[in-house]
Structures are given as C-alpha cells and as structure tokens.
Amino acid sequence: MAKTRRVCHLLLRFLAFAATLAAVIMMATSHETATIFTVSFEAKYTNSPAFKYFVIAYSVITVYGFLVLFLPAKSLLWQLVVALDLVFTMLVVSSFSASLAIAQVGKKGNSDAGWLPICDSVPKYCDQATRALIAGFIAMIIYIILLLHSIHTVIDPLLLRKS
Amino acid sequence: MAKTRRVCHLLLRFLAFAATLAAVIMMATSHETATIFTVSFEAKYTNSPAFKYFVIAYSVITVYGFLVLFLPAKSLLWQLVVALDLVFTMLVVSSFSASLAIAQVGKKGNSDAGWLPICDSVPKYCDQATRALIAGFIAMIIYIILLLHSIHTVIDPLLLRKS
C-alpha cells in the first residue's frame, strides 16, 4: 500500500516536471514575425513582462521538480519539501495567472482601453503560447493536488490538539 | 505563551480581513470618466476580466476571513482551515497576479503589441486601482505567512516518519 502510494506520488511529480519543462520550452521558443502595413514586428515572449515571469518561474520549478525526483523516500528533507512545494506552487499560480490575463488581452483585446487583439496578426505565436499555458495549467493543478495531499497526510487531529 | 500566539494569530487574521475588505471596496468603487478627442469613456473595474476576478476573489476571501475570526480556539474545524487557507490563498495569489499584469499594461502599455498606457487619461482611476492592489498585496503576504506558519506548526518529523 505504502509502495503504491510512493509510486503514484513519484509519477505525479514526474508528470508535473514534464509539464513544466514543456511549458518552458514552448513559451521560450514561441516567436513569429508579422508585417502590419509597412511595420514589421517580431512577437516573442520577451515582449511581455508577464510571459518573461512565466518562463523564469516555470524554469525554477522545473529544476526543483527534477531535484525532488531523486530525494530518497526516508529523507528528512521531505518536511522541507512541503514548505518548498507551497512556495513554488504560489510562484506557478502567480505566473500562470499573470500570463493568462495578458494572453486573454492578446486574444480578445480590450475595447474600453483601446487595446486591439494581436492574435489575428501572429496566429502561430498565439497558438504556441496557448499550448504553453495549457501545459502550465496541468503542472499547476498537479502541484496543487500534491500540496493538498501533503496537508491531508500531515494534519492529524491529535497533533493539532497537542500544539 | 500559547495565549500570546493565539492573540498574534487572530491579530494577523484581522489585519488580513481588513486588507482584503479595503482592496475590494477600493477596486469596486474605482471609476473615472475621461474624454479622449471626442470619445468619452468610463474606466471602471468591470471593463477588465482580471479586475472583475480580483473583486470576486477578494470578496470571497473577505467573507471567509470574517467567519474564521469567530471560530473557537478548540474547534476541530481548524484542521479544515489549513486546507481552506491554502485554496483561498491560491485564489488571492492568482487574482492579484492577473490584476497586476493588467495594471502594468495599463500603466506602461506594451509598445510591441501596440497597447497604449491609459493611466495618463484616467489618473484617478489608476491611483485607486494601485491602492487596491497594494491592499491586496498586504493581504496576500499575511495569508502566505499564516499558511507557512500552519505548515511549520503541523509538520512534525515524528509524524512524517510515521506516515
């Protein structure tokens, strides 16, 4: 039973690692050059602070997710992992939300602010950024599940009454 | 000692509640009418999906924060509060990040996407949204501190070795 749970846990962590890695690669390699009237411009993730934040945050959690895969089952560092999971999940939630907000403006624009959608001019760039956000969303959900599971495991009514 | 900690904990929760309430009120009441050339437009939070999300998420956590203030110290529901704290803190981090990303575009614009800053046209609206974001940031930090403290309290090496 304990072994099955351990395998499930590692599998979820591996999936999260793969999803964050895919999100970073897709977001970092997304670029497209478009010409509107006579002005040529290149759409890439460095144009938007939110997308830069996405790439940095997801890179950090990719490295972290990779390292945690090699942590021995009996290590006392697992205590620290719960706190680190929390901090890194916050980072992922934050960068995902910021990027989604910007992507929404890129897709739909904002008529009140006079911001036009850009996805008609750079459809390939938009598609790839969307795929990066989907991978990022999957990773985020897995990390939230891992975190809720950790909290469920470590919170024991007896312990709470003691403290 | 336990009583001092309990008072500190309640004080932090009250501050978080006050900050989320202030953030909701400031964001929801922010509006300004501006005339650019001959076009008149009203800037208000409902113009942006991210700001609407901010108001909804912070309203939810304001109600939650208010209810938790009246939870008895010995209640077994405190176990549930740790998990709820986690979910609601994620919600707050997410809505704050999305709103900050949009506010950044509103303030600085994005020359690559051709999105012009709007804060020069509606400075009062921008100032009030900024104040709402500052209150939201304070609330977010307090909830993260509460969450890290809960995790620190409930994670006991002995328990982890048992599980």
Describe the structure.
Chains A, B: This is CASP-like protein. Chains A, B: Its main location: membrane. Chains A, B: Keywords: Cell membrane, Membrane, Transmembrane, Transmembrane helix. Chains A, B: InterPro entries: CASP/CASPL, CASP_dom, CASPL. Two copies of one chain form a homodimer. Chain A has 163 residues and is mainly alpha-helical. The first copy, chain A, has one domain (2-162). Chain A has helices at 2-29, 49-69, 78-108, 123-154, 157-162, and strands spanning 31-36, 39-44. In chain A, strands 1-2 form a two-stranded antiparallel sheet. In chain A, helix 2 runs antiparallel to helix 3. Residues 156-163 of chain A have low confidence and may be disordered. The interface between A and B is large, with 48 and 47 residues.
Average pLDDT taken over every residue of chain A: 86
Our Rg estimate of chain A from Cα atoms comes to: 19 Å
Strands in their spatial order, largest beta sheet of chain A = 1-2
Largest binding interface between chains: A-B, 48 and 47 residues
Shape of chain A: elongated
Number of domains of chain A: 1
Q: Which oligomerization state do the chains in this entry correspond to? A: homodimer
| Helix content, binned percent of chain A | over 70%
Q: Which percent range describes the beta-strand content of chain A?
A: 5-15%
Please provide the count of β strands of chain A. Answer: 2
Our count of helices of chain A gives 5
> N-to-C terminal Cα separation of chain A, in Å?
29 Å
What keywords describe this structure?
CASPL (chains A, B), homodimer, mainly alpha, 2 strands, membrane (chains A, B), two-stranded antiparallel ribbon, CASP_dom (chains A, B), 163 residues, 5 helices
